[in-house]
Amino acid sequence: MNSMTSPSFSGDPVAPLRREWTRHTPGQRLSRFAVWLCCVAAVVWAVRSIDIIPEFLADAPEQMADLLIRMWPPNVAHYYPEVHHALIETLHIATLGTLFCFVLAVPLALMAARNVCTIRPLNVAAQFSLVASRSVNSLVWALLFVAIFGPGAAAGVFAIAFRSVGFVGKLLSEALEETSHGPREALRAAGASWGAEMLKGVWPQVQPAFWGIALFHWDINVRESAVLGLVGAGGIGLVLDDAINFFQWDRVSIVLLAILAVVLVAEVIVTRLRSRLL
Amino acid sequence: MSATSAPPSSADAARRVAFAPNWPMRLALLALAAYAVWASSQLGLSWGRLAHGLGEGGQLLGRMVPPNFERWGLLLEGLLESLQIAVLASAVGIALSLPLGVLAARNLSPWWISGPVRAVIAVCRSLHYVIVAILFVKAIGFGALAGTAALVVASIGFIAKLFAEAIEEISMKQVEAIRATGAGVMKVLAYAVLPQVASRFIGFCLYQLDSNLRNSTLVGIVGAGGIGGTLFAAFKRFDYDFVAAILLAIIALIFLAEIISGRVRAALR
């Protein structure tokens, strides 16, 4: 993309060498400038109209230091049994939620993949429900399910499942759409039923993607399930909420450390399993 | 495999099964099913409870329909505040992530810098943004500023890591060439590193803006500003028809953002 000042071929033989090169055409420069202007305008608008209370901002470092001092040292006495059991419950919620999410996501993904299900309205319906599931945050799902099942781990499991269906279903249907048609055709020619075609023709092709998605989402769900308790959906978030409401900051810090440890361990496990499985 | 070594005898061929059963997989699935049953009993999930819940769910849906858009002023105010939080958090988060990403890249900075920076990024990523928002609400007080700060932390944890990974994958030849001309650190960054990663950076930034928008609709639940506060208040007062209106508005906003960022990404490609 370059423009130059009018090249003249008459007279001076080195005139073409004195062309002035620029990287962008004026139009491009204008559009780049417009994009930057939009970005800056958005930020300025946000800064000017957001509620910032200067007094709060001024004593923020002081408050932060106060918070950290109250949190230190973490009180280990609070760990067993309460935090420990809550942690186990969180892991159960994450794992069961992931399992249940796959129960819902596999049929939806089969319906959404255009090469598996050839009925257009079903494709669109499945895609729409996946988008809706993705757009509602896990805590909002948790609020809804707390209203349905009452406070407790059941609401947490369903919230995790309904939230991850959107992501898992989208990824799975993309993996399904990338499969090659050959094995299926061969099986069909040999007289295989639809189930056998899926199991022996499609499943081996999507299997690596499937395990990758499952591990990745289990890891995400462990993080997510740690906060579900804030709205009453069970797990360690409940203990955290309690501790914060009672201003027991040394208990808060032990809960935070426990969450941090579990999240890091889950990440390590997932990385290990992934490198062994895939 | 017998096919590659010796030609199989006819008896061998007869014994071979077309699709051999995969016993380890079957056992693993069985174990998973057993775990699911055991864990559900631990959490107190039972069919009776599910059936009861379904009835309650029907009632809840009945109270949510039709959505009530009467208080649209409140709704719009919350949505705009969420949008502001997302824009501001993305801008500050990206601005902070650029230097952190360069410092965390192991091919550009020495290990005694990249190690600690990587640790900071890992901690930012490990703590859920709602938990960070609670801590900031305590430190800075209620309001949009706490939510913005929490999302800045989350953005750093996410894009600084991606920035660092992208920088680690660049070709070092251009860096060497620019260095050989006697350029300083900033010039090496500007002329050798950034041109190689700029397009991927823009992709990450768009993705982060998208996910900040999703998350900013939520931080209000812990008092950190945005539509989440309105949603939580409506929930607590059992205004389920207003809840439905808010949820529909959030879904529409996020859907719109997804479409716009998809368009921009397609235009960049």
Automatic annotation (TrEMBL), chain A:
Pfam families: BPD_transp_1 (PF00528). GO terms for cellular component: plasma membrane. Keywords: Cell membrane, Membrane, Transmembrane, Transmembrane helix, Transport. Its main location: membrane. Residues 87-270 form the ABC transmembrane type-1 domain. The chain crosses the membrane at residues 33-50, 91-113, 139-162, 252-270. Gene3D superfamilies: MetI-like. It is a multi-pass membrane protein. Belongs to the binding-protein-dependent transport system permease family. This is Phosphonate ABC transporter, permease protein PhnE. The gene is phnE.
TrEMBL record, chain B:
SUPFAM superfamilies: MetI-like. It is found in: Cell membrane. PROSITE patterns: ABC_TM1. Residues 79-261 form the ABC transmembrane type-1 domain. It comes from the Bacteria. Keywords: Cell membrane, Membrane, Transmembrane, Transmembrane helix, Transport. The chain crosses the membrane at residues 83-105, 142-164, 215-235, 242-260. Belongs to the binding-protein-dependent transport system permease family. GO terms for cellular component: plasma membrane. The keyword Transmembrane helix applies. The keyword Hydrolase does not apply. It is a multi-pass membrane protein. The gene is phnE. This is Phosphonate ABC transporter, permease protein PhnE. Pfam families: BPD_transp_1. InterPro entries: MetI-like, MetI-like_sf, PhnE/PtxC. One of its GO terms (molecular function) is ABC-type phosphonate transporter activity.
